[in-house]
């Protein structure tokens, strides 16, 4: 019996074209700080950020908030924000499918001769979405050098990377894309507390006692921190600038050993940057992670 085979349409040759970098993190402050630093390092980065908000009006109780910041020819950036209810089976499926639709729409608009030039059209949300107020000013949009996708707090990048890798192989959008890096933002401030924390990860809010609007993951904070580090092809550390860590893991000389913990958890071939503030997005390896992903 001969089984049919899906042929690649050539949209994504490994390591060629425009890289898509997925950024993960277990706390909002570190995730936003690293995302801002990476986007600021290159004027032609298109940044797509996902977050969650409580919404009692939808069945899941959660809204997904998507913010797109894309470059313009005048060197400034144009941003727009959409929100839509989490209506698929899980957060991972909702986000990865939305990322695929957004990238397809943007690539189609960037092709010469197609509607949407100059500039990019507004990107529709999913059913039930609501457009938040943004500037309507539009100038011609250059081809991004990199797409930086910041995933919601705690969301693992591997399922999203696998989906996008398959999507790029089987689609022909005219703009070659490939999954570059799954990067993890890790703040060293209070890192040990998060790494050994068996309470549920807070996805939204401060997570304090009595905070009614806080949103929690089913997994523990420590489990999420270790999984995000383990899956990453590169790890971007934010040095201690505040409270630091607890004292129980200090060595005899009083030195913090958080970096050693991170290095021990990470894959042997993962690239670890000890100061994310000194790293530009063009410095990331940008090697396709498609071949490293576990077989389904």
Describe what this molecule looks like in 3D:
By secondary structure, the chain is an alpha/beta fold. The protein has one domain. It is built from 6 helices and 11 strands. The strands form 2 sheets. A 9-stranded mixed β-sheet has the order 5-4-3-2-6-1-7-10-11, with helices on both faces. A two-stranded antiparallel ribbon has the order 8-9. A hairpin with a 5-residue loop joins β3 and β4. α2 (91-110) packs parallel to α3 (158-170). The protein is globular.
In short, what is this structure?
The chain is built from six helices and eleven strands. The chain is α/β, with parallel strands linked by helices. It has one domain.
Strand order, largest beta sheet? 5-4-3-2-6-1-7-10-11
Number of beta strands: 11
User: How many domains make up the coordinates?
Assistant: 1
Low-confidence stretches: 5-10, 113-139, 288-296
Secondary-structure-derived class: alpha/beta
Strand content: 25-35%
Span from first to last CA?
23 Å
Number of helices: 6
Task: Please give the radius of gyration in angstroms.
Answer: 20 Å
Query: Level of helix content?
Result: 10-25%
Main β-sheet description: 9 strands, mixed
**Tell me, what's the shape?**
globular
Oligomer classification = single chain
């Amino acid at each position: 019996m001969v089984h049919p085979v899906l042929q690649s349409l050539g949209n994504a040759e490994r390591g060629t074209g425009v890289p898509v970098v997925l950024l993960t993190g277990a706390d909002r402050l570190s995730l936003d700080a690293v995302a801002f630093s990476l986007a600021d390092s290159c004027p032609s980065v298109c940044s797509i950020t996902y977050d969650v908000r409580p919404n009692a009006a939808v069945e899941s109780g959660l809204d997904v908030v998507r913010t797109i910041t894309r470059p313009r020819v005048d060197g400034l950036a144009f941003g727009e924000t959409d929100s839509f209810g989490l209506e698929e089976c899980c957060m991972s499926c909702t986000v990865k499918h939305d990322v695929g639709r957004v990238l397809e729409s943007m690539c189609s608009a960037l092709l010469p001769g197609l509607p949407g030039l100059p500039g990019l059209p507004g990107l529709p949300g999913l059913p039930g979405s609501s457009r938040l107020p943004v500037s309507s000013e539009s100038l011609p949009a250059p081809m991004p050098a990199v797409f930086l996708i910041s995933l919601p707090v705690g969301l693992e990048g591997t399922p999203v990377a696998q989906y996008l890798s398959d999507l790029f192989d089987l689609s022909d959008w005219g703009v070659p894309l490939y999954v570059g890096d799954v990067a993890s933002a890790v703040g060293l401030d209070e890192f040990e507390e998060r790494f050994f924390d068996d309470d549920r990860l807070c996805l939204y809010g401060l997570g304090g006692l009595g905070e009614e609007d806080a949103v929690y993951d089913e997994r523990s904070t420590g489990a999420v921190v270790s999984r995000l580090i383990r899956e990453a092809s590169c790890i971007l550390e934010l040095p201690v600038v505040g409270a630091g860590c607890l004292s129980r893991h200090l060595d005899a000389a009083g030195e913090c050993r958080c970096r050693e913990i991170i290095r021990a958890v990470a894959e042997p071939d993962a690239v670890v940057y000890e100061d994310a503030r000194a790293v530009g997005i063009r410095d990331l390896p940008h090697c396709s992670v498609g071949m490293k992903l576990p077989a389904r």
